[in-house]
């Protein structure tokens, strides 16, 4: 598996500083969000990457029903 196909994390933040933002400036903010998470899409050449940004300090666990993931995939296919 190549590095570009791996799931990766940015460097974590701490109580006194935010996590490093690894979302490219060209990424598009998607219309899906919760009070704790934002979703971004970055397309380059023939590859696409989804970024999930934590926007609250202690978001807890994100539950994603498969039906919502399928809905997101269908939306992204239309883009």
What is the topology?
Layout: E1 28-33, E2 37-44, E3 47-54, H1 66-78
Antiparallel strand pairs: 1-2, 2-3
Structural features:
79 residues, alpha+beta, three-stranded antiparallel β-sheet, 1 helix, 16% helix
- Sequence of strands across the biggest β-sheet: 1-2-3
Number of domains: 1
Residue fraction in strands: 25-35%
- Rg, please? 14 Å
Helix content: 10-25%
Oligomer type: single chain
Major sheet details = 3 strands, antiparallel
**How many angstroms separate the termini?**
27 Å
pLDDT < 50 stretches: none
Query: Which structural class best describes the helix and strand composition?
Result: alpha+beta
Mean pLDDT: 81
| Number of separate strands | 3
Q: Given the C-alpha coordinates, what overall shape results?
A: globular
**H and E order:** EEEH
Task: Please give the count of helices.
Answer: 1
Provide structural commentary:
- With 79 residues, this protein is an alpha+beta fold.
- It has one domain (3-78).
- Helix content is 16%, strand content 28%.
- It has 1 helix and 3 strands; from the N terminus they run βββα.
- The chain has one helix at residues 66-78; strands spanning 28-33, 37-44, 47-54.
- A 3-stranded antiparallel sheet has the order 1-2-3, with no helix packed on it.
- Strand 1 and strand 2 form a beta hairpin.
- It is globular, with a radius of gyration of 14 Å.
- The chain starts with 27 loop residues before the first strand and ends with a helix.
Could you give a quick summary of the protein structure above?
This protein is of the alpha+beta class and 79 residues long.
